[in-house]
C-alpha cells in the first residue's frame, strides 16, 4: 500500500542515545533543510561552525543553542565531540559513503 501525503509529511526523524564517559546524550538525524543550512555559506563558515550548527540542530537532550554549542566545543574533549557529531552525521545520511552528501559539498 502506498504512503499517503499526511504520513509522508510527518517528518519522523530517527533518534538515538550516545554514550559518553560521563553520561548519555540524545541525538536525532538532521532534516535535509538543516543539512543545507550547515553547508550554505562556505566562504564565511569554518568546519567548527558547521559542527556547532550540527550540534545545535541534532542534539535533543540536552538542547543547545548555537552559542552554547560553541562554548561546548571549547570545553569538551575532541573524542566526545567527534562521537556526537559523527553519530548525528550517520543518522542523517551524511557518512562518507553517501553520494548525495558528497555532491552537496
Description:
This protein is α+β, with helices and mostly antiparallel strands and 105 residues long. It is built from six helices and three strands. Strand 1 (15-20) and strand 2 (23-28) form a beta hairpin. The longest helix is centred in the last third of the chain and has 14 residues, at 78-91. The protein is globular. Mean pLDDT is 84; it is low at 98-105.
Please specify the SSE layout and strand pairing.
Blueprint: H1 5-8, E1 15-20, E2 23-28, H2 32-39, H3 47-58, E3 59-61, H4 66-73, H5 78-91, H6 99-104
Number of domains: 1
Output mean pLDDT: 84
| CATH C-level category | Alpha Beta
Radius of gyration: 15 Å
Low-confidence stretches: 98-105
The amount of helix comes to 40-55%
Order of helices and strands: HEEHHEHHH
Number of strands: 3
> In this structure, how is the largest beta sheet organized?
3 strands, antiparallel
User: Based on helices, strands and strand pairing, what is the structural class?
Assistant: alpha+beta
CATH architecture label name: 2-Layer Sandwich
- Lateral arrangement of strands in the main beta sheet: 1-2-3
Q: What is the molecular shape? A: globular
Distance between the termini: 36 Å
CATH topology: rbstp2171
Number of helices: 6
State which percent range the strand residues make up.
5-15%
Amino acid at each position: 500500500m502506498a504512503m499517503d501525503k499526511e504520513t509522508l509529511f510527518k517528518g519522523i526523524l530517527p533518534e538515538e542515545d550516545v554514550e559518553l564517559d560521563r553520561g548519555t546524550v540524545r541525538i536525532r538525524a538532521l532534516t535535509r533543510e538543516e543539512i543545507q543550512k550547515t553547508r550554505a555559506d562556505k566562504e564565511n563558515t569554518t568546519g567548527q561552525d558547521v559542527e556547532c550548527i550540527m550540534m545545535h540542530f541534532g542534539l535533543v537532550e540536552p538542547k543547545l543553542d548555537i552559542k552554547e554549542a560553541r562554548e561546548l566545543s571549547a570545553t569538551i574533549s575532541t573524542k566526545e565531540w567527534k562521537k556526537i557529531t559523527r553519530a548525528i552525521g550517520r543518522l542523517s545520511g551524511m557518512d562518507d559513503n553517501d553520494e548525495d552528501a558528497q555532491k552537496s559539498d
